[in-house]
Amino acid sequence: MEWFLLALPLLVCAVDARTELVNVAAFKPVSGVRSGLDPAALTDEDDLTWSATATMNDPYLKIDLGSEYLIKNLQLMLDQNAGRNLINSMVRVGSSSVVTQNPVCIPIDDKYAPIMFEKNCNMKGRYIILQKMGPGRTIRANEIRAYVTMEIESTTAAPTTKAPTTVQPK
């Protein structure tokens, strides 16, 4: 009788959990946009498109994230040629459907606001609101991004060789 060793390859999968910042505002619904404009422009991940409110008292643009998130980082992009007068403006984050009951993440009081605001908020909320206080106002903004930390699982396969097995012929 003859004996031999058999070595079989074994596929081992390792799960590597890591975190990544994800924009949860991407493609979410927006309310408060002036009739005739595309509300999706505020969350379409394109800095060249824009949304605006009608001229009114205390106008706001509100993004509904659909669920409550802990917003780590918030970005607001403005058109370099229009809509940069943001005196008495703010970006709010919160879970109340009443706009003014949500806390302020980014206070803005600048006639010549920069093109991009970015702030680490660390605030929980379902809604992100860009609001401008005062009579007869309008808001124009290109993009709002809200980043949260999410665990991303990646599966990697590494072939290994199984320890030799002794096989006895029949």
UniProtKB/TrEMBL annotation:
The keyword Signal applies. Keywords: Signal. Residues 1-17 form the signal peptide. It comes from the Eukaryota. This is Uncharacterized protein LOC100376619. It comes from Saccoglossus kowalevskii (Acorn worm).
